[in-house]
Amino acid sequence: MRVEDYFSTGERWWFRLHAKGGNRHELPAHHNAESYIDEYLEAAGIGDDKKGPLFRTTVWPQPNALEEPDASTRRASDDLPTCKSGPARRARVLPHSKSHTQCLS
Questions:
Q1: Res. 5: pLDDT tops 60
Q2: Is position 22 within any domain?
Q3: What is residue 16's predicted lDDT score, i.e. its pLDDT?
Q4: 1, 11, 35, 51, 69 from 46: Cα distances, Å
Q5: Is residue 55 part of a domain?
Q6: What is the CA radius of gyration of the chain?
Q7: Strands of 12-18's sheet, edge to edge?
Q8: 33: Cβ–Cβ under 8 A, 6 or more apart, which residues?
Q9: Is residue 82 a part of any domain in this protein?
Q10: pLDDT on residue 66
Q11: Residue 99, SS3?
Q12: How many structural domains does the chain have?
């Protein structure tokens, strides 16, 4: 979604959703969503960037992939135990798996 996909038609604010095949759907914004988006646009300072994305990443620029990430940029999956042997030795173990031999690839 772009910033221009949140728009006003008089008293009401609307969301424009882009679907497959070029279809567009326009939906009225719930009054709570309207106040949240208004506060977000003001706090982020992106209200004037109509062609820019509505929801943006929080970490920019991305940290260098070769550096060790600090605590603020680590992923939750970094704390999962890894497989010890086999072709998936660098994969993550599924914490909810019934068998401890299943690993994420």
A1: yes
A2: yes
A3: 96
A4: 13, 22, 15, 10, 28
A5: no
A6: 21
A7: 6-9, 12-18, 24-28
A8: 15
A9: yes
A10: 57
A11: coil
A12: 2
Supply the DSSP string of 47-65, one letter for each residue: TT-TTSBSS--SS-SPPPT
How many C-beta atoms surround the C-beta of residue 12 within 10 A? 11
| Model confidence band, residue 34 (pLDDT cutoffs 50, 70, 90) | very high
Tokens 């030795």, residue? 89
Torsion 70-76-78-79 (CA) sign: positive
pLDDT digits (tens, 9 = 90+) for 41-80: 999 899 999 999 998 877 655 566 556 656 555 565 566 5
Residue 33 φ/ψ region, left for φ over 0, alpha for ψ in the -120 to 50 degree band, beta for the rest: alpha
- Per the CB < 8 A criterion, the answer to whether 12 and 29 are in contact is yes
Report if residue 103 sits inside a domain. Answer: yes
Structural domain boundaries enclosing 10: 3-44
Read off the amino acid at residue 54. Answer: L
**Structure-token match 């943006």, residue found:** 56
